[in-house]
Every structure is written in C-alpha cells, then in structure tokens.
Design goal:
This protein is an all-alpha fold. The chain has 26 helices and no strands. Among the domains are: about 130 residues, Tetratricopeptide repeat domain (Serine Threonine Protein Phosphatase 5, Tetratricopeptide repeat); about 90 residues, no CATH class. It is globular.
Length: about 475
C-alpha cells in the first residue's frame, strides 16, 4: 500500500511561544512543527507515527484531537486532509491547513503549498516547492521522501529513487522511505531490489500490517499469487481491519478467475468498513471484479452503491467521480450516448459545487478529454480531434506531464481508429505506460503494423499487469490474454 495522498497576524507573545515550541518539536535541520500546545503536539506525533506506518484510519483520531487542542495547527490539518475518508473532509481540511500556514514556519508552508498544488492538478509547481523544501532541509528524511514521492507521481523514477535512498541513508529506521522506494523499484521493473527493500521494511515494522501488505503487492505484480495471499493474510493477522489487504487477496483470486471468491473477500471489507472511505473502496473493487468477469451491468450497480454513500453526506466531488466512473464503464461497453450523459452530470456536480476554482477549472479541462473519447466511440472524428486539441493545449499550459500523456493517448487512439498504426504507436508510446489499456492498444497497433514481436511483448505486459483492483485493467485483461494467445 503506497503512502496516501497531495491568514492572520499573530501577536508578538504568541510568536515567541511558537518559536519556542517549534524549536522543541524538531531539530534545527528538520522541518519544524509549529503549535502552541504541548498536548496538541503529542497527539500529532502519535498520529503521524501511525500515518507513517499507513495505519491511516487509526491515525485520524489523533489528528482530530490535535486540532481540538490547537485549532490553528497547520500540519495537523494537513495530515487530516491526507487521511480524509471523504472528498468533503479532504478539501475542508486542506483549506484549514492553507489558512493556518500563515502562522507556521517556512518549511511547513512549503510542504502545505506543495501538497495543495499537487491536489489541484499542478504537479510542476508541487515539484518545485518540494525541491525548495529539500534545499532548505537537505538532512530531513521527510523532505527527501516528499520530493522522491513527487518525482514518483510524475513517473520520473530515477530521481525518485535517488531522493528516497538519500532518506534511508539519513535515517536508516525511517520506514516510509523504504515503502515508497520499494514501489519505485517495482515500477522500474527492478523486482529483486524491490523485494529486498520490502523485506527490510518488514524487518523495521514486524508488528505493523502495511509492510506485509506492500510486499504482498509486489508478489501480486510478479504473479506469485499464493505467496502474495500468504503475506496479505499476515497483514490481516496483525490488523484484521486493514482494508487494503482484502482488496489484495481479491485481486489474487480475480486473476486466477475465481471471481465469486474475490467478491466474497471484498464483502468482508465492506462489512468491516470503519468509515465511508473504506466502504466506498470495497464497493469500487467489487465493481472492478464484475467488470473483469464481463458483467458490466453488475459493475454499474456496485458503483451506484458507491455513489449512494457519497450522496448521504452531499459529497459532490465523490459523486462527480462516481458518475465519471459509470460513464467510463458505459463507454468501454459500447454505450457512448449513455456515457456522455453521465460525463455531463459529473461535470455539472463540480461546476455547481463550492469547491475551489482550481478544481472546477481542472474538471472542465478534463471534460474535453472525456468528450474526445465519446466522439471517437461515435466515429465523429473531426469532433474528437477538436476536443483533443483543446485538452492538449490546456495540459501543456498547465505543464502537467500526466495530462500531456493523456493527450498523446487521445491522439494515438484517433490514429489507431484511422488505421494509421505507425502514428498510433508513436503517440501511444508517449502516453501513460503504467496504464494496461494503453499497453493493450499498443499491442494492437503493433499487430496492425505487422510487428508481431512488439505486439506480443505489449500484449504480455497488458495481460499480466497484476495490480490491485483497477478498472482500466479490468477493461482489457481478458482481451489481452486472447490477443496473446493468438499472436
């Protein structure tokens, strides 16, 4: 399980107290912790330890108590945002952290602003701020880990590994760096290094669930399903409510085509859910299992249940995401007009919400991506190209590498649709190589161009992607298996 997520003037007397507390809370070469309450600090540190160990739900009460003791505790609000079970709580706490940062140290301000930028689809600004944070605190293992994780999010794995390894050198017992580093090695296909790193992680935290869970996820990726399930069971033996491990076991079962057993495992996760976030995650994963099994109507019913959870708290961001997910399921299963209607509902929920303008602007930009895909499915090529161009320009203006990859995806899919297989290959190779749907279409494009060797390579990568329940994988897994057999 990877690490989770991305003003007033104080009186002089309070500033002095804060300065004293900041100095007591962290050494001079570490990011300070600014609070005027010893009790708040103690609660925060306790919660952060749990958060570091990916016991997110267990950490929440500690952060809540920290802000009860000090309502202006910026870092505590930030961690509440990062551990939020719902979008409503996420945006509310992120706003409080941003507001409270005026009284915090420069290091804390950089951290909060970077996380906010990443959350508002501005990863280039986030990366610059994390770089500035590391420049200010080069000997802080947390700063190095944050920067490494930011590089990881942009698929710049070599730079990510450099800073995460630096974090382990600075603090050989700082477990979050080993966890993230293990994932970096995994995405670099350095499986031997990943396995060594995750084993070190389990040695550091033998009585916590997440090290076993992370190691299990690597084994899942490698297709060692029985070994993976054994590690997931170890995680659940430590913490029977560790929700991610239920999803991992379900994935192992699903990829062995044991869909009913996978659904039963996820029902356990749903029944044991401690908050709406865990409940929604279980319903989402059940939707993936149904889609993988070739039952999109059942998948839609699970996502409708997920949306119903968000509706109870008027969580418009989550409702928007659920409608977009249903639209994607419909689109992938040949129902373009129904998908378009859902995409429009998704957009309107954000437009009519009280969310920040950055969220609204990014959602409006992303709607052009969705429209391009709908038009392509309807064979309205001119409209698909027009929407692709609008999306591309917005992505390039924002310098958002992940969105630029999506623009290449759109251009590649248009080329593929027009039987320009060489053009499709060129564009799709610049799209997200961590998306099995892209890998599958690359295989088809290579097949269309007569390159059977490359087609087989990408079909293999798509067919054996082996990750936690992921809808884009469910759309193509069995298709990729059939293609692989045919090549």
């Amino acid at each position: 399980m990877r690490p989770s997520r991305m003003p007033f003037s104080a009186p002089a007397g309070l500033l002095l107290a804060l300065a004293l507390f900041t100095a007591a809370a962290a050494p001079a070469d570490k990011i300070p912790i600014t609070t005027d309450s010893k009790e708040a600090l103690a609660q925060f540190v306790g919660g952060r330890t749990l958060f570091d160990n990916l016991r997110i739900t267990d950490a929440i009460p500690y952060f809540q108590k920290a802000v009860e003791k000090d309502a202006g505790f910026a870092l505590a609000h930030l961690y509440l945002a990062q551990s939020a079970p719902t979008a409503n709580v996420f945006f509310a706490e992120l706003g409080k952290a941003d507001e409270a940062s005026a009284r915090a140290s420069r290091g804390e301000q950089l951290y909060i602003k970077a996380f906010k930028a990443a959350s508002y689809a501005d990863p280039s600004t986030a990366l610059k701020l994390y770089q500035e944070l590391v420049s200010a605190f080069p000997d802080d293992e947390r700063a190095q880990t944050l920067l490494g994780t930011s590089y990881f999010a942009q698929q710049e794995y070599a730079q990510a590994a450099e800073h995460l390894q630096k974090a382990t050198e600075l603090a050989p017992d700082f477990s979050p760096a080993y966890n993230q580093l293990g994932y970096v090695f995994r995405f670099m296909n350095r499986y031997e290094d990943a396995e060594k790193t995750f084993k070190k992680y389990t040695e550091l935290l033998p009585t916590d669930p997440n090290p076993f869970d992370s190691y299990a996820e690597l084994l899942l990726k490698m297709g060692r399903f029985n070994e993976s399930m054994a590690q997931y069971e170890k995680a659940l033996a430590v913490d029977p409510l560790f929700a991610n491990s239920f999803a991992g076991i379900a994935a192992c079962l699903m990829y062995q085509n044991k869909h009913e057993e996978a659904l039963a495992e996820l029902q356990k996760a749903h029944d044991n859910a401690r908050n709406d976030g865990e409940k929604r995650a279980a319903l989402f994963a059940r939707g993936v299992v149904y889609q993988d099994e070739g039952k999109p109507d059942m998948a839609l019913k699970e996502i409708e249940k997920e949306r119903a959870v968000a509706e109870k708290t008027n969580d418009q961001a989550s409702m928007s995401a659920d409608n977009a997910l249903m639209a994607n399921i419909l689109l992938q299963n040949g129902k373009a007009d129904e998908a378009l209607a859902k995409f429009r509902i998704s957009l309107s929920l954000i437009q009519n919400s009280s969310l920040a303008k950055e969220v609204k602007e990014n959602t409006e930009l992303f709607h052009h991506y969705n429209l391009a895909r709908v038009y392509l499915a309807k064979e309205e090529i001119a409209s698909a190209k027009s929407e692709t161009e609008r999306f591309r320009k917005g992505a390039e203006a924002a310098k958002n590498k992940n969105q630029i990859r999506l623009a290449h995806e759109l251009t590649g899919m248009i080329a593929f649709h027009q039987k320009d297989y060489a053009g499709a290959v060129d564009e799709l190779k610049q799209a997200n190589q961590q998306d099995p749907k892209i890998l599958y279409h690359l295989a088809l494009a290579f097949q269309g161009s007569g390159n059977a060797g490359e087609a087989k390579k990408f079909a293999m990568r798509a067919a054996r992607y082996n990750v936690l329940p992921f809808m884009n994988y469910a759309y193509v897994r069995t298709k990729a298996e059939k293609l692989l057999t045919a090549l």
